[in-house]
Structures are given as structure tokens and as C-alpha cells.
Write a structure and sequence with these properties.
The structure is a single chain. Helices cover about 40% and strands about 25% of the residues. The protein has one domain: Rossmann fold, CATH 3.40.50.2020. Strands 7-6-5-8-9-10 form a six-stranded mixed beta sheet, sandwiched between helices. A two-stranded antiparallel ribbon has the order 1-4. Strands 2-3 form a two-stranded antiparallel sheet. The chain contains seven helices and ten strands. By secondary structure, the chain is an alpha/beta fold.
Amino acid sequence: MNKQALAEFFISSGAFTARETVLKSGRRSPYFFNTTVFDNGEKSSELGRYYAEAIIERSGRKGFDVIFGPAYKGIALAVSIATSLYRDCGMTVSYSYNRKEAKDHGEKGSLLGHSIRSGERVIIVDDVMTTGGTKLEAVDFLKSQAPGAEITGLFIALDREEGDENGESALSAFTDATGIPVYSLLTITELISLASKEKLPWEITDNISSYLKEYGVKSND
């Protein structure tokens, strides 16, 4: 996967913007990353292709059966990735997603799309990971709705490289708690180092570096 092209794509599409944002964690981030800007067929298709390339690179062509996208942002990702796997790789892969609240009429329940069966291997896809709380909720949901399925990986677009109050990696903590490896298409450090300086002014690079010094993963050295 061409990571420099991906970094440029995130910036040119508006997914990455240099504006201060208050995160769910309460931290004031100097940048915002938002996959809802991939709101047409062209952008969604390109994003799906990058995810598909990363998934095949990490999991192989036969290492998974289902793509699961947790509501809400993960739903569109699951569809675009499954479409890309078919269109670009000739792979027919099922996808599933959840709704926030179960219905008692029509298509009942909380798990929609493919009905995940025992023994099937599931990859979770989402946009970013900050603390990992919502990803743990997705794992708990799958275990309750699809017992016997195996979750083989979590793929995110951007690793914010943030730590908890002790500076421990959110990705490592998630893997330690669940046994599920986490893969990111890009880290925030890669994005600011690979992007063209004409599109990414030095001020935001310095602001992100300062932010990571305060909230980033602390080295064990």
C-alpha cells in the first residue's frame, strides 16, 4: 500500500483537518479526523480499496470470512471494503453491522447483514481508536450475537497514537484485553511525516508533536 498517497488522500479529501476538536475523552486535539467526508462513490471506493489492500496484506486472502462494521461509521466502511474486495480482488466476502437499538418488528434484532455463524472468522473495521472503549463494545456485541465466531483482527484508518493516563498504548491495551491484533492504515506520525508540506503547514505538525508529548504513548525505554 502506498502510504504517502494515502496520507495525501486523507488531507485532500478533508478527512484530516487542522482544527482544534474536543474528543470523547475530553482531550483538546489540534486536529480532527472524520471518515464521514467520504460521502460519494469515488471517495468511498478509494477508501475501501486502501482498507482492502491492508486487510489482504495482514490477513491474507483466506484469513477471514466476514467484515463487521460497528454503527455508525463502520457500516459504510464494511460495505465499501466488501465491494472493493470483490471488484479489485475477485473475493466474495460477507459483511455485517449492528444497529444501536434492537427492533421487535420487521427485521428484528441488532445484527444485520450477514448472519455470522460459529466458526467464521470476523474482521472488525472502524475509523480511529483513541481509548479503545467503543471497540471493546463491538467485541462484546459480537461475542453475544455470534458466539463461536473468531475475531481475527481490528482494522482502523488512523492510529492517533494516544495513551491512557499512564501513557500506555490504547492499541496494546485492547490487544492485551481481547487477544485481537489491531492494524492501522496510517499512524498520525506517518501522516504528518509523509504529507506534502504545501498541504500540511508546519504549525499543525508542531501542534501535533506537542499534543503527542502530553497524550501520546510513552516509551518503555
